[in-house]
């Protein structure tokens, strides 16, 4: 549903606070969909394309593979309020993160594994400014280096990598960063802040294969959250 533009009957999810000026690449999905429709019209949904692209991009960047269950149908509507309320904030503490995932049938183990997706990608200055300037559970040299591209005022849309060492490689360095108090987002560092998830972060930092196995399983589990199938959707 995130692919749907606003229309007269609903306001879509693209302008929701977690998505606006953040989620991009819609044109890539549009191109794939156009080519798939040209080859075989009315067979493959955009929802399945997104699920396949998620897997293939992880593999392309050096990460694990998994079997993508297919047969999803597309939503005909989207919800601005659902996106605003259901996507965890980068300011979330550990209990809020656990509650958010639990509400969708995902365990704390799934939370830690799926957070490892932050081994790639970028975050906007506005999402981590408070952490690098105000928090104490952060490596000082790391905070200083990030401040150079994220001033205390202005520059909200300036990007910094979520994984400073290998931002375009899918690996376990995200967890190593957390162990060294170099998590970029407050919500990231919450996974290693003396709480119940510390041991899992340590395990993933020490064993990339374990992370890969758990991440793949959690992606399949997340992909099975209330898919539209049969005659539902389009």
From TrEMBL:
Q: How is the cofactor bound?
A: Binds 1 heme b (iron(II)-protoporphyrin IX) group per subunit.
Which residues make up the binding site for substrate? 88
- Write down the Gene3D superfamilies for this protein, in alphabetical order: 1.10.520.10, Peroxidase, domain 2 (1.10.420.10)
Calcium keyword on record: yes
Q: What class of enzyme is it?
A: oxidoreductase
Q: Could you say which residues bind Ca(2+) 1 here?
A: 1, 13
Q: Report the CDD domains cross-referenced here.
A: secretory_peroxidase (cd00693)
Name the Gene Ontology molecular function terms of this record.
heme binding; lactoperoxidase activity; metal ion binding
Q: Where is the Plant heme peroxidase family profile domain?
A: 1-234
User: Where do transmembrane segments lie in this chain?
Assistant: none
Q: Which PANTHER family match?
A: PEROXIDASE, PEROXIDASE 72-RELATED
What this protein is called in its record is: peroxidase
């Amino acid at each position: 549903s995130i692919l749907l533009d606003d229309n007269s009957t609903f306001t879509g999810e693209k302008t929701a606070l977690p998505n606006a000026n953040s989620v991009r690449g819609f044109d890539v999905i549009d191109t794939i969909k156009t080519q798939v429709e040209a080859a075989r019209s009315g067979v493959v949904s955009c929802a399945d394309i997104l699920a396949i692209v998620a897997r293939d991009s992880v593999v392309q960047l050096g990460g694990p593979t998994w079997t993508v269950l297919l047969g999803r149908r597309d939503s005909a509507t989207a919800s601005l309020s659902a996106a605003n309320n259901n996507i965890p904030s980068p300011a979330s503490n550990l209990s809020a993160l656990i509650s958010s995932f639990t509400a969708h049938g995902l365990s704390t183990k799934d939370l830690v594994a799926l957070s490892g997706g932050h081994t790639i990608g970028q975050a906007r200055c506005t999402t981590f400014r408070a952490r690098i300037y105000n928090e104490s559970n952060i490596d000082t040299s790391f905070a200083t280096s990030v401040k150079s591209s994220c001033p205390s005022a202005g520059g909200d849309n300036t990007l910094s990598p979520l994984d400073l060492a290998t931002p375009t490689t899918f690996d376990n360095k995200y967890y190593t960063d957390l162990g060294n108090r170099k998590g970029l987002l407050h919500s990231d560092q919450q996974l290693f802040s003396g709480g119940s998830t510390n041991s899992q972060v340590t395990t993933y930092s020490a064993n990339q294969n374990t992370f890969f196995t758990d991440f793949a399983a959690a992606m399949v589990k997340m992909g099975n959250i209330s898919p539209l199938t049969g005659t539902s959707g389009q």
